[in-house]
Amino acid sequence: MNEKYFEYIEEQRMNESEKNEFLRKRAEYEYIKNRRYSLYGIMFSVIGLVFILTKDLAYEYFDKQFSFVFIITGATTLAFGVGFILFRYLQNGSFSKYTQSDISNQNLRSEVQDLRFELIKLRKKSGESADYENISKTINNAIDNTITEDFIKSKIDSFYSDKAISEAKRKDILDEFENLSYRINGELTRLRKSANLNLVIGTLTTICAIVALGYEVFNNELEFSNTTKLLSHYIPRLSIIVFVEIFAFFFLKLYKATLSDIKYFNNEKTNIDFKIISLKAALNIGNDKVIQIMLEELIKTERNFKLGKDESTVELEKVKNDTSNNQIIAQLLEKLNNK
């Protein structure tokens, strides 16, 4: 009996150790990954700043065209660096989701768990060995005399078999809901990544356009003899800036649309959570009428809505409002162009 008990303790200890080891490695991986992304962001940002700050040296030793290449390279590298940092911050809410203290806590937890199991083994091995053996023999004799195989089988068949079948059916139903919730969580994670990426691209593109416009306006002291030369100088540059802003607006529009999708899936997840709670409560009560009502409500769930005449939803009204605003902006631009 002692050997079996020690084997059980050893098995439990190994299971806990493997679990703690997995958690520790996961924490280390997340910590290293976040630090690596932050390092990439800082490295690209520093390289970009070096290129931008040394443009005058490039102009002095080479020519103006080579200096312009330095500016473009520096701005692009700086944008990549800031993009890395912003993306990691938006994903985790901080620059390092798992800190060194988290890893230390995992290591301490694993060591304490190992010590706890070793202490249990030592307690069982030492102390009142003779008394333990006598008590063990008495218990074994009582079990052999009273609890036979037929007795155990009859008790299991009468009490546990129906309950086990019922619990298995209940678990299957709840597992289906859990799988649905897990799938929605995965979709939410994907949407958040996509939204953050669109926000970073749109923000950086807008900043680049603003910097380019400011550089063109305040850094170039040019004199033009006539209006034609003035327009030929500024129109191409302003056209590029407008194009870049439209590009940024596209990504910011995608970010806004993704936020609406995230809100929709969050509402769906909330509905599923409430249904899981209601179903668990109905199964725990064991009232057939309540369970029937719950099943009828679940059957009524319809995802492909069919709206009747003069019916609408919040999302449709938002789309109509956005379309109306875009038409107004297009009309204003057309009027300005005609003038």
Account of the protein in words:
By secondary structure, the chain is mostly helical. The protein is built from 9 helices and no strands. It has helices at 2-53, 55-61, 64-92, 100-125, 129-146, 149-218, 227-285, 288-299, 314-338. The longest helix is centred in the middle third of the chain and has 70 residues, at 149-218. The chain is elongated, with a radius of gyration of 34 Å. Mean pLDDT is 69; it is low at 94-101. Keywords: Membrane, Transmembrane, Transmembrane helix.
Layout: helices, strands, pairs:
Layout (H helix, E strand, L loop, with lengths): L1 H52 L1 H7 L2 H29 L7 H26 L3 H18 L2 H70 L8 H59 L2 H12 L14 H25 L1
Helix pairs in contact: 1-3, 1-4, 2-3, 3-6, 6-7, 7-8
Keywords: Membrane, Transmembrane, Transmembrane helix
Query: Helical element count?
Result: 9
Structural class: mainly alpha
What portion of residues belong to β-strands? Answer: under 5%
Query: What is the C-alpha radius of gyration, as a whole number of Å?
Result: 34 Å
Brief account:
This protein is mainly α and 339 residues long. Helices cover 88% and strands 0% of the residues.
Keywords:
about 350 residues; mainly alpha; 3 domains; transmembrane; membrane; transmembrane helix
